[in-house]
Amino acid sequence: MITKVMFQKDSVEITAIVLFVLTYILLLIFPKIRAYIALGSAAVFVILGILPVGKVFSTVDWNVIMMIAGTMGVVSLFIESKMPSLLADLIIEKTHNVKWAIISLALFAGIISAFVDNVATVLMVAPVALNISKKLKISPVPGIISIAISSNLQGAATLVGDTTSILLGSHANLDFLDFFVCRGRPGMFWVVQAGAVVSTFVLLWIFRKEKQPIQAMERTEVKDYFPTYLLAGMIVLLILASFVPKQFTLGSLHFTKPDAINGIICVALFVIGLIRSLIIRKDFKVVTRALKEIDYFTILLLAGLFIVIGGITEAGVVEDISHIFVNVSGGNLFALYSLIVWASVLFSAFIDNIPYVATMLPVAGAIAANLGIDPIMLYFGLLTGATLGGNLTPIGASANIAGLGILRKDGYEVGTWDFMKISVPFTLAAVVTGYLLVWLIWA
After folding, report:
1. How far apart are CA 90 and CA 125, in angstroms?
2. Alpha-carbon distance 157 to 118, whole Å?
3. Helix 226-243 / helix 62-80 crossing angle, nearest 10 deg
4. Which pLDDT value is given to residue 9?
């Protein structure tokens, strides 16, 4: 009887592994239909009984889904207000030559990207770089590559900077402030800033010969500042929510903070922005245009992946993978940490870091449980490697693909080497800095 139960468990686990590997292969081969592949795989996990039907809803992290949807919506209103373009114009006014214009725009993209999706940031800032390049009759390629990789770097700095950060925050129960100070120690924000400082020196060296003078352009006019207040309000409310205890009392009333509080805040502010736009403009196209800006493809992909990961966790695969990592590293914490960081860099250079991080977070948690340690160091190491590693190649991050797409529309085809001669030294400088800092702070 015991042997039969063990055989059934092994067969379920093998089936789950085969399905999971097949899912990843299909995600790599058919990137344009990744969401449907993930949802199809999720359905198979449920149909085969690997994941019970009753656990499907709870497996999906609705806080992540709502945060992404709400943040994307607010950002779409922010972009439409033209405020990012005005901020870029103000920065250009303070620069004296092409080198400092490129560096300034890259740093500006990084700052924006700490609070706004990476792809949205590139779509905001890249047209400014194109405009400058046309006026000076120089190639826009180096500038837009710098903007893309800088936005990727800073995406790991805050809870709302990137989908991978949102995934980590929800999985590890980290709030907005934990990215700044986590359990009394410097959080990911400061690790990323240190990497940004070092990688900025790399950009200064790469563009050391670009000394053509530059003149200020006409300032963009912003007529609606409400979306800016909305975005700032979202950040403030996320910070305030982090101070609210899980259980609290007001007078004779007892309250429980919702698990999806961050997602509720983001969606609520987006709805407020939509209603206001609809009232002011009296045109329903405003609503449909804003709703179209939400990346439903990524949301569906994540929903499917959450169910798939729930399936392999239920089957015991996540636990087995964690044992493999521990065995390969010989149980040595530094070797294990190094393996997670540099494996993440390698994988994220060629595959989308969203499914990778979504898969590896429970693995890192299981590894920490096996070793009896705090998982935060492994989580931060994973985020460092996976988020920054995507900068190595043109296909490693969505922001890179978006930047190269903008260049292609303008008639510039960018080769892999043209991209990597800027991205590789930039990325290695940032990753090595983050890798060492996370270890020194959290080991």
Report:
1. 12
2. 12
3. 150
4. 55
pLDDT value of position 353: 77
Provide the pLDDT confidence category of residue 443 given band limits of 50, 70 and 90: confident
More confident residue, 214 or 16: 16
**pLDDT tens digit sequence for 334-372:** 999 999 999 889 888 776 677 788 888 998 998 888 888
Cβ-proximal residues to 47 (8 Å cutoff; 6+ apart), any chain: none
Which pair of tokens denotes residue 15?
């089936």
Q: How far apart are CA 116 and CA 158, in angstroms?
A: 10
Distant-in-sequence contacts of 318-323, Cβ < 8 A, 24+ apart: 318/362, 318/363, 318/366, 319/366, 320/13, 321/363, 321/366, 322/363, 322/364, 322/366, 322/367, 322/369, 322/370, 323/370
What confidence tens digit (pLDDT) does each residue in 272-323 have?
Answer: 999 998 888 887 887 888 788 777 887 888 888 889 888 888 888 877 878 8
Residues 359 and 308: their CA atoms lie apart, in Å, by 9
